[in-house]
């Protein structure tokens, strides 16, 4: 059985990418195939995409989910919206130096106030005191929710660079970052090669950064995220299978969406998923995965280890550190082929 410490590795701080490359797509690509590692440029990803393949992207769009406000007493408060409910209430993390009591009022920009009405396992439910269209409000007064390991404030550049070029459906509070490398020109090259582009939606929650704290990873409670996939995407995948093509998932969020749908026998095309993929999991749909480098001891490290093989991931991450790849959201990428499950 694997333990939490098995998914740890040493990462020098200087390898954490605090900013995107100068031009979208100017990143590096580490390829793990047939026990060999190749150091390439990201645009060479086209060489690993074949006619009849389906490449699946997560088209969720990042919202400006971070807000700065004040308590009635004047103390500063930071709110990171996790989800906007149909009732217009919000579920959010609240950053404060003191305990957050039920009934507390938070004053936000443009004379908007919200009231804390419920505690929810590290999160809070807040109700607006006056009507507000949250998506319009956040677009005007919110901030791009950069990950906690990027130690700077967001700027204008982040509004485009922390968003994929194909982002469509608003709802994520963290970017599906494997897609950040793709340009419109590269998407056209993929189509021209005879591969098919398909989309799923999974709204990435801030729980994606939640550390696993129990050495017994089976006791970790996975966060839940909203997903959807349409019948057209499923048909494209079925056709690719018939034609001998591969299913290539861009990012762990696409992987989790596809595997959730397969796990539910293709009957639930929308819903919430808390699928937790660890070594030993048998993948049903995904053949190749394009992804960034992930945080130590994270659920995403466990997912890629399940997909590519635990020993392969150890080798890949050691190589990436040694060769000074850039890590995490604004960092470089890798591509893995599905390997046999490892159970030791």
Can you put this structure into words, describing what you see?
- With 344 residues, the chain is α/β, with parallel strands linked by helices.
- The chain folds into two domains: 4-62 and 157-337, QueA-like; 66-141, Beta Barrel (Thrombin, subunit H), CATH 2.40.10.240.
- It contains seven helices and 17 strands.
- It has helices at 134-141, 158-161, 184-192, 231-242, 252-263, 299-308, 310-322, and strands spanning 28-33, 36-41, 54-58, 60-62, 66-71, 76-84, 90-95, 105-108, 112-120, 123-128, 169-172, 196-202, 225-228, 247-250, 270-273, 288-292, 333-337.
- A nine-stranded mixed beta sheet has the order 2-1-17-16-14-3-12-13-15. Strands 5-6-7-10-9-8 form a six-stranded antiparallel beta barrel.
- A hairpin with a 2-residue loop joins β1 and β2.
- α6 (299-308) crosses α7 (310-322).
- The radius of gyration is 20 Å and the shape is globular.
The gist of it:
The chain is of the alpha/beta class. 20% of the residues lie in helices and 27% in strands.
Helical amount among residues, as a percent range?
A: 10-25%
CATH architecture of the largest domain: 3-Layer(aba) Sandwich
Overall shape: globular
Low-confidence stretches: none
Number of separate domains: 2
């Amino acid at each position: 059985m694997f333990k939490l410490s098995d998914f740890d590795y040493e990462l020098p701080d200087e390898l954490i990418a605090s900013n995107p490359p100068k031009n979208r797509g100017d990143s590096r690509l580490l390829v793990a195939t047939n026990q060999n590692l190749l150091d390439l440029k990201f645009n060479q990803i086209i060489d690993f995409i074949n006619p009849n393949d389906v490449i699946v992207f997560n088209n969720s769009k990042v919202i400006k989910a971070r807000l700065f406000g004040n308590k009635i007493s004047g103390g500063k408060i930071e709110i990171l919206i996790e989800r906007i409910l149909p009732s217009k209430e919000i579920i959010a993390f609240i950053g404060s130096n003191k305990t957050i009591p039920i009934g507390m009022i938070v004053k936000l920009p443009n004379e908007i106030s919200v009231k804390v009405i419920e505690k929810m396992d590290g999160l809070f439910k807040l109700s607006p005191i006056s009507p507000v269209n949250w998506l319009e409000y956040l677009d005007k007064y919110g901030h791009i929710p950069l990950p906690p390991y990027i130690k700077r404030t967001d700027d204008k550049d982040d509004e485009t660079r922390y968003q994929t070029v194909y982002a469509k459906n608003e709802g994520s509070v963290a970017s599906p970052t494997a897609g950040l490398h793709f340009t419109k020109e590269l998407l056209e090259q993929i189509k021209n090669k005879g591969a098919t582009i398909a989309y799923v939606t999974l709204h990435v929650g801030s729980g994606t950064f939640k550390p696993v704290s129990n050495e017994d990873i089976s006791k970790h409670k996975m966060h839940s995220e909203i997903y959807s996939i349409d019948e057209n995407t499923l048909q494209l995948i079925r056709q690719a299978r018939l034609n001998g093509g591969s299913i290539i998932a861009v990012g762990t969020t696409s992987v989790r969406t596809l595997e959730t749908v397969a796990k539910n026998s293709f009957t639930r095309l929308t819903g919430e998923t808390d699928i937790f993929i660890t070594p030993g999991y048998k993948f049903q749909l995904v053949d190749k995965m394009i992804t960034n480098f992930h945080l130590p001891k994270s659920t995403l490290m466990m997912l890629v280890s399940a997909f590519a093989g635990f020993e392969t991931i150890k080798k890949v991450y050691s190589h990436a550190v040694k060769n000074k790849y850039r890590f995490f959201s604004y960092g470089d990428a890798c591509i893995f082929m599905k390997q046999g499950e490892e159970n030791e």
